[in-house]
Fold this protein.
Amino acid sequence: MSEDHDHGSHPSDTELRVRALESGLPEKGYVDPAALDLIVDTYEHKIGPHNGARIVAKAWSDPAYKTRLLANATKAIGEFGLSGRQGEHLVAVENTGSIHNLVVCTLCSCYPWPILGLPPVWYKSAPYRARAVLEPRAVLAEFGVNLTLDKAVKVWDSTAEIRYLVLPERPDGTQGWDEERLASLVTRDSMIGVAKVTAPGAQT
């Protein structure tokens, strides 16, 4: 279920197509280069999982904020100035010692773009969308998350109306860490529920 990564020196077919579009569309007058640069900058620096990581770190550090986040995620996330398209109606669900949450969109690929960025390819794939509901433990195991049978798995199906953010369990060994350091541990996958957060040197 994991993504394939090209570590070679040659660009992938997708990268070549993107480069062709980036050069061809402006040349033909279909896209304003300045507008294209703004879109790229937005997704590189303003929209992405670093936003979600800040939210998780805040919830780990500030019990009052965590309470607000779990009660009304849309409003609590709005405190960071994050809202808008694909992020109008957000719900935060907390992983605990007894419950592990997993997010999927069985109909298409509804996803909280403002806080997690663009959805990964596997999130949109038909196998993930079907199997996450039918056999969530098997799917989690394929991502490296092996849960004991006494831990319940709850699957949340995103819709056009509601999108979900998983609040991962805070890893041991991070007491006294500031929010910036905590945020550096949080990954996109942990906020979807297909990964756990671990501290450096911790046993997984």
Remarks:
- Strands lie at 90-94, 99-104, 152-157, 163-167.
- The chain has two domains: 13-45, 48-192.
